[in-house]
Amino acid sequence: MRRLSREFAVLFLVLSFSLIFIFVILSLLAFQRVIKEEYDVFLNNKVNSVYEWFAQLKMPAKDLISSYENDNIIPEDYDLVIEKDEEEEKIIVDKIWISDAEKTELSDVKSGFYNINDEVAYLWKYLSQSGKIYILGKIFNRDVMEELSKYLGDDSTTFLIFDGKYIIPQDFSEYNIFIRSILEKEEETYVMPFEVAGEFSNAFPFIKDYFLIDKIEVGDSYFYVIQEEALKSSVTSNILMNMIIVLSIAFLVTFLISAFINHYLSEIINKILKGFDSMKRGNHEKIEINSKNELGIIASELNTTMNYIEKTSRELKNYNKELKIYSKKAREASNAKTEFLANISHEIRTPMNAILGFADLLLNQEKNVEKRKYISLIYQNGEGLLSLINDILDLSKIEAGKFEINYEPYNPKNLIQELIETYSQLARIKNIKLISKISNDIPESIIGDKFRVRQILTNLISNSLKFTEKGYISINCEYVDEKIIYSVIDTGYGIKNENLEKIFEAFTQEDGTTSRKFGGTGLGLTISQKLANLMSGEITIKSTYGMGTTVKLILESPVMKKENSEVSEEISENNVLPIEEDSGKDIKEINRKILIVEDNQANRILIKKILEQTNFIVETAENGKIGLEKFKKNNYGLILLDLQMPVMDGYATIEKIRKADTHIPIIAFTAHTLVETDEKIKKAGFTDMLSKPVKRKDLINTVIKYLKTPQKVEMKSEEDIQPSIKKDNYEIYERIKKFSSQMDMNLKEAEEMFGEFKKYLEKSILDLKENIKKDDYEELKRIGHSIKGTGGMYGYPEISDFGKIIEEYSKNEEKEKLITTIIELQKFSEEKVFKYI
Fold it and tell me: Beta strands 472-480 and 433-438: pairing type?
């Protein structure tokens, strides 16, 4: 409870103590600076004293030489005296013991220091009044340096360095300093004079002595002059001692003040905290603080707040009761919305498939130009409506956070070529040039979601075609820093600057005239931008109104390395798939072996035939129980598993399979598009999902994606094998032709599969009649669901509708309606299927 007051007191203590400490330190630094400046002057005088001493060293030479020449008194004050005239050189004094060779070398000496017989001597020439030249020398030993040191004074000393020798006075040892320290400091600073700290002083054990050093050159040797900064060390010691005393007193005073502050604040803060605690418990007990400062104001405001909270809490209880009711309704509405979107899309897709199918049939039959125009409009608008349904579902999935991106290798060059081929005809109709520009550095294979990239580029190209009346549309591609950049550039109407920001909003276009003139819902760019963001990318737009627009899709797309590549090749135009040659025979056979678990016989036969054409080994099971038994006895590379089956459905089957094998790819078959269904399938452990009705290309590509040994597909052309059904039976012929196109079969094979469909339909109608007599609604519902999935597979959306109605009536046990529907299904089948097959 006293934490804040303690922190405040400690803060005050630290702040006050820090200010006093800083003041003392600054004072010490100021004193030391003044003292150093004074010592700089002292040192300069000492340096001059060295020169004076040398001058005094030479001064006796005149009298000594004169005494020698006049009275023959030997000048013993010097260690070397050589007399030199034109005829000879005569050694008068030799305390160095030079040799004849050294004497000859010294005949032409210059003033300076010399190393003679391991002695350092200072030599100079002297011209006497008689005209003779004398070479005078003085050995510089410890005694001479002691003499020079005394000449400099008690607070100074010096030492000589010449030819690697150190000449040190006797009293140098009394200084707490090492020559090594001086030389190292000199190398660091390069500035004269410089300061050196010695060893710890005797007067104050934890304070070092300081020395100021300068260097002078005399005859190729160096004298280091050392000025003792005794005053500085003394001042530092005294100030440090005083600083300790002052800081101790300051600490004591500030500690007492902070303790008082701590006690005062903690008492008031504890009262305030008790007030908050009472609010937390809901007691709302008022607090009393007899103070007019800020803490008293806080206490007063806290009491006011308690009154307000007490009043508000009562109101919130009432609001919470209402909120729970509204929240429940909102969740129900959200679930209803999601369910509605899924159901309505399914409801619309079924009749739309019928509309588009019949419109396509009518286009092929109708010869009248005007009627063909009307039918074409029906077909185009139906496709537009189907595209809108897909956009709304995609947007719903993205906003629900249940939209997943599938990253796989793909070739961006091939993608652009496919888009050019798709839209070239539309561009020619509008008399617009459709071109592409692909950079040379585009990789052959990058990682990304090709399907979603195609979806985005399709939206961008469609917009450009819609808003461009003349000129060109260019699809460009470049690769920079592991990012693929797709650009769609057009010379269309362009976009006004003030409308650029809002075009990514859902159901928003540039203005009302855009929608009226060109149509559209405004969902395309919204979904494209959201898809780009999901793929860690972005879409940028630059536009000049009246001149054109440039839209860029930028995505992070690392290059697929060949050595790690497991690219799933799609079915090419000549229906040839690559075969891996490096796998063992057993592994290749397992990877080619597929189990189909599907209760619908016609679908089983169709899928089995498609996969066997691709040289896969296929086994089938009519329900989950049989499929599970086959799984336990055999090794499969992949399982295709229907979700709704009798005896054991897909969810129960995969649960048991996954307990034994967590790696085998299992693909779900489903007719649902509900977001929750996708999520449920993923949680159940399915590897992927295929929606019914499934196309051959989608089926093969999905299988190849998860199996590593795809085989060669050999297809027979339509010219080789023709169906027995003649073109006179136009309607059934067109259905077979369309079915063969979707499933990449020749017409003969498609006709055979229609025969299987006929057998399945006949048996299903008989089973319906038998079970309606038994009132077995569960079996009726199962048969209806099976018919619903089969009709779409074989190009009969009408039969799918019958299956859906039977499934619905079976759930509600509406027997009379079921009988009527079964009769209608039989009548339709006899007229549209049995009659011709």
Answer: parallel
* DSSP labels, 252-263: HHHHHHHHHHHH
**Number of neighbours of residue 698 by Cβ within 10 angstroms:** 13
- On whether the CB atoms of residues 93 and 120 are closer than 8 A, the answer is no
The two three-digit tokens of residue 349, written as one number: 């897709």
Residues 6 or more apart whose Cβ sits within 8 Å of residue 489: 473, 474, 476, 548, 549, 550, 551
Could you give the CA distance from residue 99 to residue 365 in angstroms, rounded to a whole number?
Answer: 136
Q: Which residue, among 421, 721, 433, has the nearest Cα to 573 in the 3D structure?
A: 421
Helices 601-613 and 696-706 meet at what angle, rounded to 10? 60
Within 497-617, residue ranges assigned H as helices are: 512-518, 524-534, 585-592, 601-613
Over the stretch 228-278, which tens digit does the pLDDT of each residue have?
A: 877 666 666 666 666 777 777 877 877 777 777 777 777 777 777 777 777
Residue 302, Cβ density class (10 Å: 0-12 exposed, 13-18 middle, ≥19 buried): middle
Tokens 């697929």 found at: 560
Cα–Cα distance for residue pair 708/689, rounded to 1 Å: 19
Q: Which one-letter amino acid corresponds to residue 675? A: V
**Contacts with 35 (C-beta within 8 Å, 6 or more apart), sequence order:** 229, 231, 232, 235
Q: Quick one: which of 740, 736, 715 has its CA closest to 727?
A: 736
CA separation, residue 533 to residues 368, 409, 553, 557, 605 (Å): 49, 19, 10, 13, 42
Choose the weakest-confidence range: 173-182, 446-455, 562-571: 562-571
d(CA 611, CA 392): 34
| Alpha-helical regions (H) of 634-746 | 650-660, 675-684, 696-706, 730-743
Nearest CA-CA partner of 344 in 390, 302, 383: 390
DSSP 502-523: GGGSTT--S-HHHHHHH---S-
Q: Which tokens go with 87?
A: 């005829």
Contact yes or no for 753/775 (Cβ under 8 A): no
With beta carbons less than 8 A apart as the criterion, state whether 692 and 644 touch.
no
Residues 378 and 11: their CA atoms lie apart, in Å, by 82
Tokens of 386: 């189907």
Separation CA 386–CA 793 (nearest Å): 18
Pairing of strands 688-691, 666-670: parallel
Q: What are the beta bridge partners of residue 162?
A: 165
Q: Which of 110, 106, 142 is nearest to 124 (CA)?
A: 110
Minimal CA–CA distance to 333: which of 325, 683, 282, 620?
325
% of residues, the chain, pLDDT over 90: 8
Kindly provide the residue ranges of all beta strands, DSSP E only, lying in 19-128, ordered along the sequence: 80-84, 89-94, 112-116, 119-127
Q: How far apart are CA 210 and CA 194, in angstroms?
A: 11
The residue with tokens 């089983």 is 604
* pLDDT for the residue numbered 621: 93
CA-to-CA distance for 793 and 679, rounded, in angstroms?
24
Report in angstroms the alpha-carbon separations of 635 from 611, 650, 667, 689, 699. Answer: 17, 19, 16, 21, 21
State how far the Cα of 442 lies from the Cα of 740, in Å rounded to an integer: 37
Q: The whole model's pTM is what?
A: 0.34
* C-alpha to C-alpha distance for 704 and 741, rounded to whole angstroms: 20
